[in-house]
Design brief:
The chain is an alpha+beta fold. It has twelve helices and five strands. Helix 1 packs across helix 2, helix 6 packs antiparallel against helix 7 and helix 6 packs across helix 10.
Length: about 240
């Protein structure tokens, strides 16, 4: 047994690599050459394994996105920023108790300022604390009242979520706390949060912030440059599919 390069595992990996990376490796997947040639190929080109597996993951993720497009890309009220008619929408799944989500705020602002064709859509993913769910419920209600961006900024500005900080954020955003708290208990808000949480596993989301950019999901804070590169790839793939 030689780990990933054993005869038991090498051929399936090369079949994946060949199928996903193109005709250059296809001869390995069609019975040409013996096991030693497969092993030699993998030793000479170990980079094909993670690359191929990433491509396979992207394909599976793309299927999930296509099957749940409305639940991912249809905004809840005013829970979006940027160009409403942009050529590409990216989605952030966020938690208001997430420091990395807070750190992403200026990056999103820079992205929107630099790219007039992008739209950023926000989805609540309260996974860190009970207060996270309360804030998410308030944000969904605010989005339906056209006050999402104001509350979004105020919740993050308040730091770690507490009942007092959230009440202050509601007032800062120009919302009626009593009205928001009543509407936050509605079945529609329940359903919105349940839908977002139900997509975590299918999308491969492992934490917040998580981003849907084109047909890929990235679960980490992203630099402006990384986000722009991912958007460029998504646009290229979209244009290729349309041609």
């Amino acid at each position: 047994m030689t780990g990933l390069l054993s005869s038991r595992f090498a051929l399936p990996l090369v079949v994946v690599a060949a199928a996903l990376l193109g005709a250059g490796g296809m001869w390995l997947a069609t019975g040409h050459g013996d096991g030693s040639e497969v092993r030699d190929y993998l030793l000479a080109h170990p980079e094909v394994i993670p690359e191929a597996m990433q491509k396979l993951q992207d394909r599976n993720t793309a299927k999930v996105i296509a099957a749940n497009r409305a639940d991912i890309f249809a905004p809840v009220g005013s829970a979006w920023a940027g160009n409403p008619k942009g050529d590409l929408t990216i989605v952030e799944y966020l938690d208001y108790n997430c420091g990395y989500c807070r750190a992403s705020l200026p990056i999103i602002d820079q992205l929107i300022a630099a790219d007039p064709k992008v739209r950023v859509l926000y989805r609540e993913l309260p996974v860190l604390s009970p207060e996270s769910e309360t804030a998410a419920r308030y944000a969904i209600v605010a989005a339906r009242l056209g006050k999402y961006r104001a509350l979004h900024a105020a919740l993050y500005a308040g730091g770690t979520l507490t009942e007092a900080s959230m009440d202050k954020a509601l007032v800062t955003a120009g919302l009626d706390p009593a009205q928001v708290k009543a509407e936050a208990k509605s079945p529609a808000v329940d359903n919105a949060i349940r839908t977002n949480l139900s997509l975590m596993r299918p999308l491969g989301i492992t934490g917040t912030p998580s981003w849907v950019i084109g047909d890929r999901v990235v679960s980490s804070v992203m630099s402006l440059e990384a986000m722009q590169a991912a958007i460029a790839d998504a646009r290229a793939a979209k244009n290729a599919a349309a041609s």
